[in-house]
Amino acid sequence: xxxxLVEDTGVVVAVDRAAGASYGAPExxxxxxxxxxxxxxxxxxxxxxxxxxxxxxxxGACLTVTAIDLGDPGGGTYRVVAGAETLARTALGALAxxxxxxxxxxxxxxxxxxxxxxxxxxxxxxxxxxxxxxGANLVLGFRAAPAVLRYVVEKGSIxxxxxxxxVNAVDAEGFSVAIIPHTRAHTNLADLAVGDRVNLExxxxxxxxxxxxxx
Length: 215
Hints:
By secondary structure, this protein is mainly β. The protein contains 4 helices and 12 strands.
């Protein structure tokens, strides 16, 4: 479980698109399970605090730390693998070396919940269709699928690239959010250009309510 409050922006150091050769394919099976392995270098999260097997949010997608390389001081990396389901539902397949990703470690019991409940399970991707820099605010407009928009309400919460944001406006085609200077400085949203895709996770509470009230 996460909150959508980004702790760090890590840098993708390496991308291994041949990871499927050793990930999920039965022994002797000539077919490969689609998977991509990423080596990530965090900027502020200490590598020494990470453990193999823990969950971490990457641009909103929950991935498991599979290896840690402490390397030289300040130059180490950790490794995660995105499987076929994750690649089908997220924008992680477009990541390349040098790209920044928003990072958040899982919520600990007793931590403050400053954002909203974020599971790290992506509902789909959205496309940036509008960008207005108003100085104090950066207003971003995203196109999204109806399957996501059904849970998006004005002044409600949505996780965009792993960031808990308040919805400014929503219609049948998409929604918009306003980014304050702190969020702009401490996440990768300022890197986005029109046409870029981002991971979206709708509020999990809305999904539960919908199921409970259905006849």
